[in-house]
Amino acid sequence: MCRTDINEYLENNRHWVADVLAKDKTYFDQLTSGQQPSALLLGCSDSRVSPSMVLGTNLGELFIHRNIANVVSHTDLNFLSVMQYAVESLGVKDIIVYGHYGCGGIRAAYENNNNGLIDNWLANIKDVIRHHQSELDAIADTDERLNKLVELNVLEQIANIKQTSVYKNALANGNKILLHAWVFDFSTGLVHDLKKKYNITPSIA
């Protein structure tokens, strides 16, 4: 895939605005009135997995936070603040952990080489590997093993969300928060729902 001249993005923006206004002259007026997103999505920073494009959403539909390998770290005040705002101020009732096959962060954690500063972040994923080492070792094909780790990592982050004060406070206040575990396959363009694959009840994922 060839690189794009940065200035082309500005030109693309102008074309996009013209197309939007041609269909709905009040579109931007509606955006300025505030946001009421349907869900909070935690995705990976990978440039190939743009949630809005893949899921076909409009502006204002998803409240999105992205980091390396879609990790929920209990020391990450950035994500925890985003989650608190989404749940307590925006009234979001659905939280999606959105991983993807072919994740570089997952591979780096599994290969366990010296990557510098990012190794501190990847330690979160290495914990997932340690918890599921025998299950992963039983998979002969490396790509299949890494795909399995992607799925296990998404499910682990769901479990981490359930341990946050934001989630616990929401439940204590009678607010039902549904957690969803999704994985994007950019070789097919499809998003897979892990709760269906693993027969997990919606209240868990």
Could you provide a short overview of the structure?
The chain is of the alpha/beta class. It has helices at 6-23, 27-32, 51-55, 77-89, 104-111, 118-131, 133-137, 142-162, 165-172, 194-197, and strands at 39-44, 62-67, 94-100, 178-185, 190-193. It has 2 domains: 1-34, no CATH class; 35-197, 3-Layer(aba) Sandwich (Beta-carbonic Anhydrase, Chain A), CATH 3.40.1050.
Tag the structure with descriptive keywords.
205 residues; 5 strands; Beta-carbonic Anhydrase, Chain A; 2 domains; globular; alpha/beta
Explain what the structure shows.
- With 205 residues, this protein is an alpha/beta fold.
- The chain has two domains: 1-34, no CATH class; 35-197, Beta-carbonic Anhydrase, Chain A (3-Layer(aba) Sandwich), CATH 3.40.1050.
- The protein contains ten helices and five strands.
- The protein has a five-stranded mixed β-sheet with strand order 2-1-3-4-5.
- It is globular and about 60 Å long.
- The mean pLDDT is 95.
CATH superfamily of the largest domain: Carbonic anhydrase
From the 3D structure, determine the CATH topology of the largest domain: Beta-carbonic Anhydrase, Chain A
Number of DSSP E strands:
5
> Which blocks of ≥5 consecutive residues have pLDDT under 50?
none
Order of helices and strands: HHEHEHEHHHHHEEH
The geometry reads as globular
Q: Which secondary-structure class do the elements indicate?
A: alpha/beta
Examine the secondary-structure arrangement and name the CATH architecture of the largest domain: 3-Layer(aba) Sandwich
Strand fraction equals 15-25%
Number of helices: 10
The CATH first-level class of the largest domain comes to: Alpha Beta
Family: Belongs to the beta-class carbonic anhydrase family.
Binding site for Zn(2+): 44, 46, 100, 103
Keywords: Lyase, Metal-binding, Zinc
Function: Reversible hydration of carbon dioxide.
